[in-house]
Specification:
The complex is a heterodimer of chains A (276) and B (299).
Chain A lengths: L1 H4 L2 H26 L21 H9 L2 H32 L5 H10 L5 H15 L5 H25 L3 H9 L4 H12 L1 H17 L2 H6 L8 H11 L4 H21 L1 H14 L1
Helix pairs in contact in A: 2-13, 3-13, 4-7, 4-10, 4-12, 7-10, 7-14, 8-9, 10-14, 12-13
Chain B lengths: L1 H36 L18 H8 L1 H32 L6 H7 L2 H4 L2 H11 L6 H8 L16 H25 L4 H9 L4 H12 L1 H17 L2 H7 L10 H11 L3 H35 L1
Helix pairs in contact in B: 1-14, 3-8, 3-11, 6-12, 8-12, 9-10, 11-14, 13-14
Classes of the chains: A mainly alpha (276), B mainly alpha (299).
Chain lengths: 276, 299
């Protein structure tokens, strides 16, 4: 098979190089964060992390609003995830199980959202949120983020529900269980991996999101971590090792999550595109 | 029968109602409003006062030399990031296909770029690319490839390449994992049979493996292209479209026109151009997909 074609040694070298390049930027964040500022601007940089020097992490937590920003990010991300699942689940079930009028148009609309650049919609959504009092509200960002994830989430969940045999539901319906209860108590547990994948995608999207938060949040204490950390760049008062320490703390939750939940993450990423 | 159909429609519409409502409010209305704005001279300073100006924003755009540069930059960025992500993704998928020790660990590591938020990506790469103290220049000069500080992000000739490098680093895991899943659905027996018939490695790849994942590659190219036209944050955080427009793609130009120059009407016109470009890509995709499906059917 392919394993035999790409010979053993060449393949191992290729994999090591690939993984090395893949994780190098994160490694470099760690090296920079653990290097004393006085040693950062040398002709020959230190190439290894110095775990004896963790002052930058303490400074990132004590001297900046990082913890508050992370809390805001977490609230936004959890809210986005809940809103996404609550919205996408029922739409996905309907798409999978009913042949209803408007089904094709709805499917097309989901696909069409992939064309819309966030930046293009920024001003109209800003106007809308101004009218409804959603600026400077974490709820506003949850709504925007969910709107960008729901199409993908719906599609992933629909593909998963398609694979659940209808007979399982019909047996429960004969027993008189209402359709809503069947959806939640019988179908949902069977597509748990896809629900996990959708949750990861929604959470990551919100954790990563920058431009809506930058534009819609003007109160400093409501900033999420993406905007807060980016703000270090302009102000020039935060030392580089502290910036990198803060970035690393910000990156860590998603990295740990991705590594430990890799089965669900990969399953979710791949499902839609290969089968769809 | 009739009432049954109506009941089905009603149940289904209850199911999709929340999604329809959310998408209509946060995607549907804004896009219509955006298209309307592109025919007005609305300013960021008074976004609710606008005068209809017909096609003036569009004619103004196409008469600007700078907008032609923007179009070229967008094309280069889209083509470069799609080709880079697909080629690198395919190479990664080929080496990861099949069993090897540490497979789970490698698949987890490959997720790292995908899982790293864009703000953090931009910050660390700006530092890696730093002309005087960046580790990239240090590494390249210590092996003698360069001599002196290369301005990766501040040299107009290099900035696009550097931004592409970061972009491909960030997005290739997605294509690698999608292609890996597709590769695993190509029956190994087909490749085996071809090899018994005397086909060598490269021929097996181009004659059996690649045709087997043709549809996945096409879908991947479609989505990567559309997403490359949308990608804003990474480029903005790395270069803000500079130096001298070297990385000024459509969405970056849109943001600059709208939020720096306060000209919402012209910004919206740029958005409409990008939207039309995405639709054009999709039409081309369907044409290619149909043709290659027909060819595959004949073979």
């Amino acid at each position: 098979m392919t394993g035999r074609r790409v010979g053993g040694v060449a393949r191992t070298v290729a994999i090591v190089v690939m993984v090395g390049l893949t994780i190098f930027p994160i490694y470099w964040m760690l090296v920079t964060a653990t290097t004393d500022t006085s040693r950062l601007f040398l002709d020959a940089p230190d190439l290894l992390p110095n775990f004896g020097h963790l002052a930058a992490f303490a400074a990132a937590l004590d001297d900046t609003a990082l913890l508050l920003w992370l809390l805001n990010s977490a609230i936004i991300a959890v809210g986005t995830t809940v809103l996404t699942i609550a919205t996408a689940w029922f739409a996905a079930y309907a798409l999978s199980r009913y042949r209803f009028r408007g089904r094709g148009a709805f499917g097309l609309a989901l696909f069409a959202t992939q064309f819309l650049p966030e930046v293009f919609l920024l001003v109209p959504i800003y106007g809308l949120f101004l009218t409804f009092g959603l600026l400077n509200r974490l709820e506003g960002l949850m709504i925007v983020n969910a709107a960008f994830v729901v199409p993908v989430a719906t599609w992933l969940l629909k593909t998963a529900i398609d694979a659940v045999p209808r007979e399982i539901e019909e047996a429960a319906r004969v027993d008189g269980a209402p359709r809503l209860a069947i959806q939640i108590s019988i179908v949902a547990p069977l597509v748990l991996p896809s629900l996990a994948a959708v949750s990861v995608i929604a959470f990551f999207h919100a954790w990563d999101e920058f431009v809506f938060a930058l534009t819609f949040i003007s109160k400093a204490d409501l900033r999420p971590a993406s905007v807060g950390i980016a703000s270090f760049v302009g102000e020039l008062t935060t030392p580089l090792d502290v910036i990198m320490a803060a970035s690393l703390i910000y990156v860590l939750p998603t990295l740990i999550f991705a590594v430990f939940a890799q089965r669900y993450v990969i399953g979710g990423l791949v499902a839609g595109s290969v089968k769809g | 029968m009739q009432s049954n159909e109506r009941a089905i429609n009603r149940e289904a519409w209850f199911g999709i109602a929340p999604a329809v409502l959310l998408l209509a409010a946060v995607q549907g209305y804004p896009i219509l409003r955006g298209i309307y704005l592109s025919f007005t001279n609305t300013s960021l300073l008074s976004p609710n006062r606008s005068t209809f100006v017909g096609l003036r924003n569009f004619t103004a755009l196409f008469n600007l030399d700078s907008f032609q540069i923007t179009m070229v930059k967008t094309l280069v960025y889209a083509t470069g990031s799609v080709i880079g992500a697909v080629v690198l993704g395919l190479a990664a998928a080929l080496v990861m296909n099949g069993a090897f020790p540490g497979r789970r660990l490698v698949r987890a590591m490959i997720l790292v770029p995908w899982a790293t938020p864009q703000v953090a990506v931009a910050l660390v790469f700006v530092w890696i690319f730093n002309a005087d103290y960046g580790v990239l220049n240090y590494a390249l000069s210590s092996i003698g490839l360069i001599d002196g500080g290369v301005l990766w992000l501040n040299d107009p000739d290099l900035a696009m390449g550097s931004v592409l490098l970061v972009t491909i680093w960030k997005i290739f895991p997605f294509s690698a994992l999608v292609l890996l899943a597709a590769l695993q659905s190509v029956p190994a027996s087909l490749e085996e049979a071809a090899r018994i018939d005397g086909a060598r490695g490269f021929a097996v790849l181009t004659e059996i493996t690649l045709p087997g994942i043709r549809r996945t590659i096409l879908v991947l190219v479609l989505f990567l292209s559309i997403w490359s036209l949308r990608r804003f944050e990474l480029i903005w955080l790395l270069t803000q479209g500079g130096p001298v427009r070297a990385t000024n793609t459509l969405v970056v130009d849109l943001y600059r026109q709208g939020f720096v120059n306060a000209h919402l009407g012209r910004a919206a016109a740029i958005g409409v151009v990008g939207f039309l470009a995405s639709i054009l890509i999709t039409i081309v995709y369907y044409y290619v997909e149909q043709r290659s499906a027909r060819r595959a059917g004949e073979a």
